[in-house]
Predict the structure of AcrR family transcriptional regulator.
Amino acid sequence: MTAAHATARRAQLFDSVVALFLAEGFAHLTLDDIAARLRCSKSTLYTLAASKDDLVRSAAVHFFTSAAVRVDAASDAATGTRERLAAYLGAVGEALAPASERFMTDLADFEPSRLVYERNTAIAAERVRGIIDDGVRAGDVRDVHAAFVADVAASVMVSIQSRALARRTGLDDAAAYRELATLLTAGIAR
């Protein structure tokens, strides 16, 4: 087996781990369960991470890193502040759509993965602020206090991430991000 083939196999296996976690969560799975479900050995899983905790954290990082690339591309492809904001938050919702309720609950309950989600939520809030700042400077949207609007967005994002919003409203994360996009884009309109 060539090094390139081994690297491709590891990447494919890691994608399969992420897909399994997204579909079914991870808290209830042991490494033996994961290996059996993916038809590989535990030693193969150990080539991805030193422990289940490391595998979960790495899977969360991979999921959010991959999502960030798609989300940023969607925002960058849009023109106009409201369109960029809607594209950005809509793409966040789309990126989270494959994540099952169980995955999101496990993510919130497991500190290492929760910290990854929190970090990505903070990055998203800062991106929202930047989009709004750019729009205010360009006169594309009404003169809002971008830091305030971004803080409101961040508060909602944290509520989404912590599962509190889902408990209060019944909205899954993807739907909540779409609603946030609608609310913010209407709120900054001229």
Summary: The mean pLDDT is 90. Residues 3-188 form a domain with the Tetracycline Repressor; domain 2 fold (CATH 1.10.357.10).
